[in-house]
Every structure is written in C-alpha cells, then in structure tokens.
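User: Structure please.
Assistant: Input sequence and predicted structure:
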Amino acid sequence: MVAPQRYPAQTRVEQSEQSLDTFLAATFRHPLRIAILRAINARPGGVSYRELTQMLRPSNAQSIARHLRILRRVGAIVPHVSEDTDGISYLLAETPQAQTLRVMLGAATVSSLEERWKQADLLQTVIEATPEAIVLAGEHGEFLLVNHTAESLWGFAKPEGISTRNYADVFRCYSPEGDLLTVEEMPIPRALAGEVVIGQELTYERPDGTKLDLLCNAAPIYSSAGSANAGEQRIIGVVCAFQDITQLKALERQRDEFLSIAAHELRTPLTSILGTVQVLLRQVARASDERPVDLVGMKRGLDRVNDQSQRINKLVSDLLDTSRIQAGRLEFTMEPADMTAIVREAVDGQRMAHPGRRIIVTAPDTSTPVFGDAMRLGQVVDNLLTNALKYSADKMPVEVRLTSEEGMAHVSVRDYGDGIPQEAIPHLFERFYRAPGVEVKSESGVGLGLGLYITYTIVARHNGSIEVESTPGHGTTFHVYIPLERAESVGA
C-alpha cells in the first residue's frame, strides 16, 4: 500500500502573513466554497475533483475548479496523491488556521456557514477588545485563537505546535497552596475531559520569574448544538477565559494583614487601660480612714489611662481621616496661618508626650506666613515627629528645621534611626504601607500604615510637596514644602 504523498505546502508563506479573520473571510465568502469544504471535511481520506463534481451537482465543474484553486491559495486545503486512485485528492490543511476552520465546519450548518465569514471578523474584534484573556483551543489542546491580552499575561506570543502533551513544558502553574499543577489539573485539559471549569484560581509563573494570580473559566465546545449529554456528540474544542487577579489578591492579603494589625494596635492600649482601671478600683475599694487612697499612685494610673486613650484616639482619627480621603470629604479650613507657630506647637506637644526625648528645633523668631489649614498642617508635622521618635533610639535626638526658600516654607524632620530601604521609599505614602525590615526603636506598636498617607494628602491639598532622604544606618529626613503667603495677606 502506497502511503499518501503530500505536495509541498504551496501557501505556507501566504498563510503566515494573513490574519485569521482574513483567512476565514476568504474560505467562507461563497456558498459553493463552503460546500466544497464540507465535502472534504466529511471524507477523512480526501476527495478528488471528479468526486466533488458528482457530489455538488448541479454546480458547474469550472466553478468548482476555480474555488478549489482559491482554497489552495489561501491554505485551506492541500492536494495529495490518493492511495486508491491515480488522481489527486484534497484534504483540509493541518495548520492552526485550518484547525479553526475544521471546528467551525463541524459545529455549523450549511446555512449558517454562508454568513460565518462575515461574523469571523466581528468575533476576532470582540475577542481582541475583551479585557480578559481568551483562548480557543482545538480538540487536542492546540491553540486556534488567542487574543493579545492572553499573550501579554503569558509574556510570549502564541506558541506554535502546542498541545496538551507539552502544556507542562510551556506553562508553569501552581495551586493557591503552592503545589505545581499537573496537565490534567489545568483548565483547558479539564474542559477537554468534559468538565465545565468555573472560577479556578491558580498562580502562573512567567518566563522572567514573576508570578501572576489568575482566575480561569473554561468550557468544552461540542460538535453539534443541543444537550451536552447527547451520546452522538463529541468535544471538538474548548473556550477558556482567564483574568489577572494579582492586584485583587494583594489587596486581600493587605486587608487581612491590616485587620490583624488594627486589632492588635487597639487591643494593646485597651488591655493597658483595663488593667490600670482594675488596679485603681481595688485601691479605692480598700481605702478607709486609716488607709487613705494613694493619690500619687492614682495620678500615675490615670496618666497611663490618658496616654493609652490618646493612642486609641489617634488610631481612630487616622481611620476616619482615611475614610474621608477615600470619599473626597476630608475638610480643610483654608486661611492665613503662621508656619512658625504651627511647628513650635507640634514640637511642644511631642515634648510633653515624650519628656525623656531630645527634640532640637531650628526656626525663625518671626512668623512664616502660609495659606492653609493650621490644624491639618500641624497634623503633618506631628505625624513626621511621631515617626521620627518611634523609629529612632531613645538616646538619639530628632531635629526639626523651618526655613523659607524660593517662595516655599520648608520643614524638615530628621531622625538618626536605621533608615529606610531604598526600594521602600516609592511606596511610603501608599495607604496601609509599612516599610519591611524597619523596626520600632521606642514606644510600642507598629501603626496602621496611615500616617504618611494622610500626611501626603494634606500636603498635596496645600499645593505643596514632600520628599524623603534616607541612608540605611544613618537615619531619615522628610522634607515638606508649603507655598508661602504674602505677608500682607496674613495680617488681613
């Protein structure tokens, strides 16, 4: 028996240069062309020209020959020498575009195919415009249609010659628990096995080593319409959609971490308050004429309650300010103000709260006029001082400097702590962000990661700017610039 011999692929170059919608438009443009394709697709061994003229009567033989030439030119069919006859028979080509054609021929009726080429361009446009990644795969897992979003997520163009046999070589996918997925556990092979995949989460590792969290949905395509339980049906392809949920998963992790830290930050002062109050109540209960209440000890206890209450109040205030910022409802009372007085008042407050710390202030004796909300600007200086004191050792000073330069009031707050990693600086003013590896040196608690976010927002609302200088091991300096107001405006 002589094996079929294929002619050299006459149209490989042409086909590689044409898009899928152009290919489908050429193949489905004429009803006779569709009839030829269906006849060839129905005969796996190939159909000769003579057989086509008999099968497609009363179509004109010259018309059949002309459409055969067109289909060969676009790469839809290829000729081969039949093992049964001396003549030439025709088969559907074995290319990704022809595979798409085969799926459509198997799934459509003759009447619908006459309009299918018109829909192909629309389908391609819709898929490309879809923000989700879309893949249309054939019955062996070969990729028939892939949109640009999918290629962008993968980090490479649609792989040629791929099938379920080599998925594991091309795609490294992990379960949410971190286990490497087998081919059978991936969405497309699952759908090819007849399963409708809904909401499968996985982690995909790109060639450059970065990892993306993906949400995948996939469903099988059957050879004919109707119930998927019909015995005569077979799976001829799969449509798979997946979207990048990396940012959503990061937000989930950030939310969970925030809730854990917020609970800890609130529980710590509440525990201290509760313990102190219980001690004071026992002292009062035991008091008598012979054993009066220790007023000195009670004052120390009440001072501790007050300090911890102020800490809780600061946490709640930061949460409320963040909520107002997100809603666009953070209120400002803009009026002439004195930046010198604002800085000195903030420093005095911190000195009272931290009597053992040394805060060095360099500020002019005269006023530094700005136009803004004095309370919010004081909040900026207070937040920066709080961070400087928290992240530097008790014995180290914190320096605050106020100058006027180039039409701006310049406030700098410097500490001598461990500094901030350079890679963390671009993220310092993000909501809930805490620089990794930066340890609290004094006080307790790590905060909610809201102080600098609120500070940045307040400075921006005053048309100012904020900058950070930090050298690991040598401390950090924050610079705030607020536009100066004309002296006559302050006195108005």
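Residues 246-286 form the longest helix (41 residues).
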